[in-house]
Every structure is written in structure tokens, then in C-alpha cells.
Amino acid sequence: MLKITAVLLATLLIVAAQSSIIGGVGGYTDRPELLESSEANALVRYAAEQIAMKDNRILDQIKLTRIQTQVVAGINYKLDFTARPINGISAKLTTCQAIIYVRFDSTRKLLSAQCE
């Protein structure tokens, strides 16, 4: 009985530690360490390309300002970024947010994107 209790306690500690590392399943977790990563840069470029195709808004001078992740059956990346539209009347800085779903096989899909 003592061995079963020890194994159960060890399992609970491992699950708790993993939940704190990845932010737990369900909510978004801020990931400032990813701001300068090549993966985040690729995702924000992908979002800009999708916005260009969907909204006919071509963005330049893109700067990622915040990244959050959510563990699902893959990972949702919530990206906040600023950019300057190069087409249209106004060339002033705009803020955008995009959510990109990345499956564990690296397939990605833009779930939502909006710029103000």
C-alpha cells in the first residue's frame, strides 16, 4: 500500500510540475522568451501573409510585441504585433492580433486575425 501511495504522489508531482511549465491545458500563457525566436518570426510572417490574402492588407515593418501559447491538440499561438500597411490610404502604425493553431506535425492554420 505504501508503494502505491508513493507512486501516486510522484505521479501527481510530475503532472503538477509539467502543468506549471507549459501553463496548463485550457488557458493562454505569456511566453516572452519566444519573442525573438525563429519560430515566432515565422509564425508572425505567416499571419501577415494570411492577412494580405484575406483582407488585401500588405503589412511591412512587423514587430512582434507579445506571444502567448495555449496547449490543445497542438498549440495555439496568440500573437500581438505592430506593422505598417504599405497599401491603402493610411500608412500609420497598426496593431494586430492573430491566433495560429499549430498541430504537433507542424501543420498550421490561421484561426483568427484582426488589425486596428
UniProtKB/TrEMBL annotation:
InterPro entries tied to this protein: Cystatin_dom (IPR000010), Cystatin_sf (IPR046350)
Stretches assigned to the Cystatin domain: 23-116
Pfam families membership: Cystatin
Gene Ontology terms, MF aspect: cysteine-type endopeptidase inhibitor activity
Keyword field: Signal
Coiled-coil ranges (or none): none
Extent of the signal sequence: 1-17
Protein name: Cystatin domain-containing protein
Organism lineage: Eukaryota, Metazoa, Spiralia, Gnathifera, Rotifera
